[in-house]
Amino acid sequence: MSQAQFTAVPVERYHEVVVRQIARHIVSGTFSPGDELPSEKSLMSEFGVSRAVVREALRSLHQSGLINLRQGRRTQVNSETRWNLLDPIVLIAFRDEDRVIPLLRDLAWIRAVLEPQIAEEAARGVTPELRSDLEESLERMRELLHDNEAFYLEDQNFHLLLARSTGNLVLERLMRVLTHLFNVSRPPVLASSGSPRGSLEGHEDIAREVSAGDPEGARQAMQRHMDWRAPQLQEE
Predict the structure, then answer these.
(1) Which of 31, 47, 107, 194 makes an SS bond possible with 35, Cβ 3.0 to 4.6 Å?
(2) Model confidence pLDDT, tens digit, residues 103-139
(3) Is 104 found in the same domain as 89?
(4) Tens digits of per-residue pLDDT, 164-199?
């Protein structure tokens, strides 16, 4: 078994830091499938935390599929086929190990399939409230053109407004999950990539077609926007 080097935890929310370090060692291959993790006592010593913190961290790693936690037996690392790739713990570890872009492309592909249909449905059932909400979101984007991170979050809110307007509770929840997963796992370079002004123009185009109650125009506007965003996740 490879020897992993851990760093003592100097901050609050101890178990999250323990989880993140162990997850990185698993995703990076320092621990191979079938390897046993160090004992609870060893982990307590290396991280400088209590047994309760170690056990909470191990439970989180077990729930994410990274390890197999068995009562009375040493904890083993699972094969990649058992990892829950939609778990933030796993996605963040992939991000930290510079392996996340292919996963983000897969998430973006799902959104690219769903979003044009969402825009079409939003336009078909457009209400005065939705028109107002979209215009307010656009106004916030205009104010945030020089704050990439805040602009990005408002961008996501715009898309959630459209999903909510369909009245499909499962779809809205799915879009929230996809958005959350993308947010927690995207590397810093994506937070500052792309053109906020170009993105704003795409959203204005979508809002115009939705507000006009033009389902086909809204679908096409969203498709253009998805096509515009796609190159940001292309592999170098």
Answers:
(1) 31
(2) 888 888 999 999 999 999 999 999 999 999 999 999 9
(3) no
(4) 999 999 999 999 988 888 887 777 655 555 688 999
CATH code of the domain containing 217: 1.20.120.530
- For the beta carbon of residue 106, count every other beta carbon within 10 angstroms: 11
Which residues, at least 6 apart from 220, have a Cβ–Cβ distance to it below 8 Å?
116, 209
Spatial separation of the C-alpha atoms in residues 22 and 60, rounded to whole Å:
11
Full residue range of the structural domain in which residue 197 is found: 100-233
Question: How far is residue 78 from each of residues 15, 23, 32, 60, 113, measured CA to CA in Å?
Answer: 20, 11, 8, 14, 32
User: In residues, how long is the chain?
Assistant: 236
- Residues 108, 19: Cα–Cα separation, whole Å: 26
pLDDT of residue 181: 84
**Boundary residue ending a domain (68, 94, 120):** 94
Residue pair 91/104 in contact (Cβ under 8 Å)? The answer is: no
The closest of 200, 215, 106 to 165, measured between CA atoms, is 215
Specify the pTM: 0.77
Model confidence over 29-88: pLDDT tens digits? 999 999 999 999 999 999 999 999 999 999 999 999 999 998 778 899 999 999 999 899
Distance of CA 233 to the CA centre of its chain: 14
Name every residue whose Cβ is closer than 8 Å to that of residue 57 and which is 6 or more positions away in sequence: 15, 18, 19, 22, 43
Q: Provide DSSP, 171-234.
A: HHHHHHHHHHHHHHH--HHHHT-S-HHHHHHHHHHHHHHHHTT-HHHHHHHHHHHHHHHGGGG-
Same structural domain, 104 and 84: no
Q: What is the pLDDT of residue 235?
A: 47
